[in-house]
Amino acid sequence: MAYNGKHRRFNPFEDGVSRREMVVGSSLVVAGVALGTAGAMGTQTGQAASRNAAATSAAGGSRGREEQRKTAEAAPRAAESERASRGESRQPLREQRKKEEPEPRPEKSRPARRAKKASAVPIILSTGEWKARKPERKATVRSGPPKFIVIHHTTTDNVDDFSLSRAKWLARAIQNAHLKQGWGDTGQQFTISRGGHILEGRAGSLDAVRAGDMVVGTHVAGLNDFAVGIECEGMYSNVLPPRELRASLVRMCAWLCREYDLNPHKVIVPHRKFNPTDCCGRKFARTIPQLRRAVAKAL
Predict the structure, then answer these.
(1) End-to-end alpha-carbon separation of the chain, Å?
(2) How many CB atoms lie within 10 A of CB 13?
(3) Considering the domain 117-298 in this protein, what is its CATH number?
(4) Concatenated DSSP letters of 247-298
(5) Which of 257, 245, 242, 243 has the alpha carbon at shortest distance from 297?
(6) In the predicted model, is pLDDT for residue 217 greater than 70?
(7) Model-level pTM?
(8) Residue 103: CA atoms inside 13 Å, Cβ hemisphere, count?
(9) What does the pLDDT look like over 239-293, one tens digit per residue?
(10) Domain boundaries in the chain?
């Protein structure tokens, strides 16, 4: 039948369905719809409940983290307040921890290094202090450091007099002997007595070392222009110098190496190395390597 555009009135009983059947069927349909609606609503309600629980849990976690942060921030303030109530310092904990940590050892200042250097300078009696004679001619000063520190012995008696007066007497005796030989003054630059007293030999030697220069002496043939000589009182072919002399010799050589910036292992040598002589004594000469090590340790 063609549709004419008009609404047709619906008669539910025109197909022979009884009113009772219709009522029962309708009731069943309504009940099914109701059950379906309830199920859908239950699902939606469950989903909403889950979302609400998740949101509540998230909000609770955020509030927990916020409370932890506030507690952590409040702890230092509380500790500072407690320290203030006890009259202690109000410095932050970070600064106090810095104070508790060991600080690196500072480098020695320049004045401290100068003080250490000054304390290492041995006591040396000048020619004026032991009343030397006036030299017969002016000493020659060579610019710059020497190449060698030459160790000698005086070949005099191994006396038991370790006094300062003995040391001064020795210095004058050596000068007189060297003047008689025509050397113009004491041959070596420095002398050490058996008692360990250090004395300037040739006039001007002490000032020259302090200036980084050297006075030319007369103590080692062929090398006087390049060597500083140290005379050790005594005779050491069969015995060693006394402890006092050896200790002063270490200090003296260390001072010379420091002032001239020399390597003790290369520059400290016995006289016999350069000239045909027993000086500074066979037994003493064998200990020169030990002297070099002691001087290096002292530097």
Answers:
(1) 129
(2) 10
(3) 3.40.80.10
(4) HHHHHHHHHHHHHHT--HHHHEEEGGGTSSS-TT-HHHHTTHHHHHHHHHHH
(5) 257
(6) yes
(7) 0.62
(8) 6
(9) 999 999 999 999 999 999 999 999 999 999 999 999 999 999 999 999 999 999 9
(10) 21-71, 117-298
